[in-house]
Every structure is written in structure tokens, then in C-alpha cells.
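Input C-alpha cells:
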């Protein structure tokens, strides 16, 4: 009866985290859905621009991902001072990490030109990136606050902030993309401005709503927590996670670049299918984040059996949920594609990719939950090396061979992603099993 009990505890934490993840994803989804009504080129442009900005954000988010497990470990041991110091370090690290990432983002145009992207898409992608890049600073500060609050199992302020921000983003998108109230239609550029304003608002809202809880943790701020010497251990622990996140994202979003070599229609279809796969991914990702906290708390108090129960419950839940999504993707590909675009040619091409995505849903669920369990166990390096092997040694090369020499196009590339995800899921599952066996002895 202990595993079902742990499953209920896990899901009680994962459910509000899911609302947060869906809320954050919804902003990008709404951007794409609205811009998708403008033109095929606009949809491909926002996909390419967001590939760069989101990729930089995901790397920074990965560097900060160690916060939840570290704060959870400290709280599990009853060490409030260590938890307070880690939270302050996290905010300082978020500020420092955002600066070089924004610097990279301002070179969007030469980066896209070097990647030989379509001429009808490149200017739109550059416009998006230039406006969205400054949003990395508030976005990463939000991540640091969110990770810390999740570790304290306090999620309601995050949910409220994200939901209010989504309302703001929707209103700004409707106004700036299509014009009105004296403004001309801004299209892709309008979506980027909405993203910038919304991310600033989201961070300010979270800090304001959660201030009664955050105030004793942040005031007075110990500036020794912001020195390079103090931040280096946290940064080194988070760097493999940031690299792992970037590699995994690169296998999916980075493939937007590869498919641009085929044309804007393939690029747009890939964007639609990727948005759908990302939406379903939010569920096991939320379970993964909850698993890191549950496993971290259990290990912090020295309860290895509870940590194993939390890990097992999370992996089972992730696999079952994604099996359901996989079935939906296989049965309703065109209906799902039409939720993002009404361009007939794109819908048809995206439906094929959506069905392939249905095949890898279970693999995707297992691998991301295993990453969370491993982070709770203190292992942040294994997922990085496994991602290099699964995606960049196997999945991507096979996908490119199937897409171009074999002539299968975008579908061939996505079959390579299936291979990569299956490999990553299998190896990470074995690693989790091995570590739990070690904790049993």
C-alpha cells in the first residue's frame, strides 16, 4: 500500500506544477497559433527565432535545475540556513547566467545566415529574436524563484502568477500581432514584444505574491552568496544539466534548422508537430520535477526506501500518461494539427509527423522522469552523457540519413528521434535501477 500512497503524494505535488508548465508552454503555443493565422512564412519565422531564444533559455533553466533538489535535501535535513543560502545563490546565478546568453542572442542574424535558412523566413526570425532575447533575464529569475518554491512544496503563488501572465500574453498577442487601437499589425515582431512584456510581468507577479514567504529568505541578502567563488560549485553542478537540456532541445527544436533545408512547408509542419509533442511532454516533465523534490526530501532525511518508492511511482505515472497521449496522436493527428494552423498543406504534413510522435511518447515520458529521479539522487552528469549518445551519436545522424540520402524528408528525421528517445529511456532506466540498488545496501 506504500507505493499507491506515494503515488498520491507525488501527484498532489505534480498537479500544480503541471499547471505552471502548461501555463508557460501556453504562451509559446498561443504565439504560434496566432502567428500561424498570418502566413506559413510567419509561422516558420517564429519557430526559427524561438529556436534560438528558447534554446538559450532552456540551457539557463538547466543550470538552475539543481536548485530544487539541493533545497529539498537541506529542508529534508532540517537545515534552514543551508536552504536560505542556496535560494540566494540561485537568484545570483540566474542573473549572471542570463548575461552571456543574451549576448549570444543578439547575434541572431549571422547565426541564422550561417545555418542557411530560407530567405523568406530569416528576416522574420531575426525580428523575433531581437525583441525576445532581453526576456531571458526575467525568465531565469522566475525559474530560480519557481525552483525554490517547488522545493518547499509551495506552488500556488507560481500557478497564480503564470495564469495571470497568460491572460496578459493573450491580450498582447491579439493586439500586437493583428493590430488595433492605433497600431498597425506587427506579426512576428508583435509576438516577440508580447513575450518580453509577459515574462517581466510574470517574474514581478511571482515575487509580489510569494513575498510573505520569500522575504525572510531573501532579506537581508547575503552578498557573499553572489561571489564567483561561492557560485562556482552550484554552477558546476548545474552545467551538465544545462548541457543535457540544450542537447535534448537541440535534437527537437534544433532540427527546425535541418528541415529548413527542405523548405518552409516542412519547417512549419515540424513546428506544428513539435508544439503538440511539447504540450504532452509537459505532463511527465511535471512528474519529473515533483520526483526530484520527493526523492530529494526522502534522501535528505535518510529514508532510502521512501526515495525508491517515489522514483518508482513517478516512472510508472509518466509511462502510463504518455501511453494515453501516444494513442491520441496516432488516432487524431489531423484534428490536433488544426489546433495550431489552418494551412491545408501544413496540416497534412504535420499529421504524418504527429503520428510518429505518437510512437515515441512512452519513451519520452520514461526518460524525462528518470532525469528527475536522478537529479533527486544527486546524479546530474549521467543524463548529459546519455543524451549525447542517444540523440547526437544515434538519433540525429540516423534521422539526417533517413531525411536526405534515403529521401524520406521530415518523416525520416522524426524516425531518427524515435531511435534517440528509446535509447535514452532504456539507459537512464538502468541507471536509476542501479543507483537505487546501491542505496539499498
Amino acid at each position: 500500500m506504500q507505493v499507491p500512497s506515494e503515488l498520491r503524494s507525488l501527484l498532489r505535488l505534480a498537479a500544480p506544477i503541471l499547471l505552471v508548465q502548461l501555463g508557460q508552454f501556453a504562451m509559446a503555443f498561443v504565439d504560434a497559433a496566432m502567428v500561424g493565422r498570418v502566413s506559413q512564412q510567419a509561422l516558420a519565422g517564429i519557430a526559427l527565432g524561438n529556436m534560438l531564444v528558447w534554446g538559450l533559455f532552456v540551457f539557463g533553466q538547466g543550470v538552475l535545475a539543481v536548485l530544487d533538489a539541493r533545497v529539498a535535501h537541506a529542508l529534508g535535513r532540517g537545515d534552514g540556513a543551508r536552504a536560505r543560502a542556496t535560494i540566494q545563490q540561485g537568484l545570483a546565478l540566474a542573473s549572471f547566467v542570463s548575461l552571456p546568453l543574451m549576448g549570444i542572442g543578439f547575434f541572431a542574424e549571422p547565426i541564422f545566415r550561417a545555418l542557411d535558412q530560407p530567405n523568406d523566413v530569416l528576416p522574420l526570425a531575426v525580428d523575433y529574436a531581437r525583441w525576445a532575447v532581453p526576456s531571458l533575464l526575467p525568465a531565469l529569475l522566475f525559474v530560480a524563484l519557481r525552483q525554490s518554491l517547488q522545493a518547499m512544496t509551495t506552488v500556488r503563488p507560481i500557478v497564480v502568477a503564470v495564469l495571470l501572465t497568460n491572460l496578459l500574453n493573450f491580450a498582447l498577442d491579439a493586439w500586437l500581432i493583428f493590430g488595433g487601437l492605433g497600431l498597425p499589425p506587427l506579426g512576428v515582431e508583435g509576438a516577440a514584444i508580447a513575450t518580453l512584456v509577459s515574462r517581466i510581468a510574470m517574474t514581478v507577479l511571482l515575487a509580489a505574491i510569494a513575498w510573505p514567504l520569500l522575504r525572510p529568505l531573501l532579506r537581508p541578502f547575503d552578498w557573499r552568496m553572489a561571489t564567483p567563488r561561492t557560485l562556482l560549485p552550484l554552477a558546476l553542478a548545474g552545467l551538465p544539466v544545462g548541457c543535457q537540456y540544450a542537447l535534448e532541445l537541440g535534437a527537437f527544436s534544433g532540427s527546425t534548422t535541418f528541415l529548413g533545408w527542405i523548405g518552409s512547408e516542412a519547417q512549419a509542419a515540424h513546428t506544428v508537430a513539435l508544439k503538440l509533442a511539447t504540450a504532452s511532454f509537459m505532463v511527465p516533465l511535471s512528474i519529473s520535477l515533483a520526483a526530484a523534490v520527493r526523492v530529494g526530501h526522502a534522501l535528505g532525511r535518510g529514508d532510502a526506501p521512501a526515495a525508491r518508492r517515489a522514483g518508482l511511482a513517478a516512472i510508472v505515472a509518466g509511462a502510463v500518461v504518455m501511453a494515453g497521449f501516444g494513442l491520441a496522436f496516432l488516432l487524431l493527428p489531423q484534428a490536433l494539427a488544426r489546433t495550431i494552423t489552418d494551412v491545408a498543406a501544413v496540416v497534412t504534413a504535420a499529421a504524418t509527423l504527429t503520428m510518429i510522435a505518437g510512437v515515441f511518447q512512452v519513451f519520452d515520458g520514461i526518460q524525462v522522469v528518470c532525469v528527475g529521479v536522478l537529479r533527486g539522487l544527486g546524479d546530474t552528469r549521467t543524463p548529459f552523457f546519455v543524451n549525447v549518445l542517444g540523440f547526437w551519436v544515434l538519433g540525429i545522424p540516423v534521422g539526417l540519413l533517413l531525411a536526405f540520402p534515403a529521401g524520406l524528408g521530415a518523416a525520416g528525421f522524426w524516425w531518427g528521434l524515435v531511435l534517440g528517445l528509446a535509447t535514452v529511456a532504456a539507459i537512464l532506466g538502468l541507471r536509476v535501477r542501479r543507483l537505487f540498488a546501491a542505496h539499498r545496501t
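The chain is about 85% helix and 0% strand. The mean pLDDT is 87.
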